[in-house]
């Protein structure tokens, strides 16, 4: 997940899922688990305290996992600092999956998902922003969609009570409590409090759907022929995002030139 660090982009949803996997491996280190490496790269605005805390939380999770030799054989988290174009040129060709997990209705349209698609990464994402066009271009079977749609988000936001989810969902409660109580010796009470009481970007509401999407992604990746087909269909469908096509359509349909 390489992009600007902001709550609406929900890097903390990704981290919450990793924490759930980590806790499962702590309970049963010998469980059947497909090895995974999660890569984050992001910068946050200087005055955006909670975003800075999310960066620190991801780094702390990375360090705690790294220090456990048995678990680090199966699960790894890497946070790359000073994200820039040069770094993206190395990351995007190497990525198997593209995490585009913003809350539906909040992402105008990024371009990172298009660059990852062009390099063969399979998108795990919500129906938001350019993910919708990627789905149309690559085909429904070559993208992994999860979470609420925009209309569902809008219908739910006025009576959304994350504290109810927290109280009645054992896995979510244990993960949020772990964030509050400490990861690698660092406590993050502000993140936990935000998730429990406000959760403005509905991380808890989409958690189960995201977990299912991650499990499906692992299943797809295990079938090498199937995953290769998904990847190649993404590369083949990426041409629609060319600048030439965009300029031509603007000239014809908007500027009437």
Description:
By secondary structure, this protein is mainly alpha-helical. The chain has a single domain, classed as Rossmann fold (3-Layer(aba) Sandwich), CATH 3.40.50. Helix content is 56%, strand content 9%. The chain has 13 helices and five strands. The protein has helices spanning 11-27, 49-66, 69-72, 85-94, 112-118, 131-138, 150-156, 162-168, 170-181, 189-197, 203-222, 224-237, 243-254; strands at 36-41, 75-80, 97-100, 122-125, 144-145. The strands form two sheets. A three-stranded parallel sheet has the order 3-4-5, sandwiched between helices. A two-stranded parallel sheet has the order 1-2. Strand 3, helix 5 (112-118) and strand 4 (122-125) form a beta-alpha-beta unit. The radius of gyration is 19 Å and the shape is globular. The mean pLDDT is 96.
Report the biggest beta sheet as strand number plus sense, adding barrel if it closes.
3 strands, parallel
Tell me what the CATH architecture is. Answer: 3-Layer(aba) Sandwich
Total strands? 5
Which sequence of SSEs, written as H and E, runs from N to C?
Answer: HEHHEHEHEHEHHHHHHH
Low-confidence stretches: none
Strand order of the largest sheet: 3-4-5
Counting DSSP H or I runs of 4 or more residues, the number of helices is 13
Radius of gyration, in Å, reads: 19 Å
CATH homologous superfamily annotation: Glycogen Phosphorylase B
Shape: globular
Helix content: 55-70%
Would you state the CATH class?
A: Alpha Beta
In terms of DSSP E residues, the strand content is 5-15%
CATH topology group: Rossmann fold
Total discrete domains: 1
The CA-CA distance between the termini, in Å, is 39 Å
Structural class: mainly alpha
Instruction: Write down the overall mean pLDDT.
Output: 96
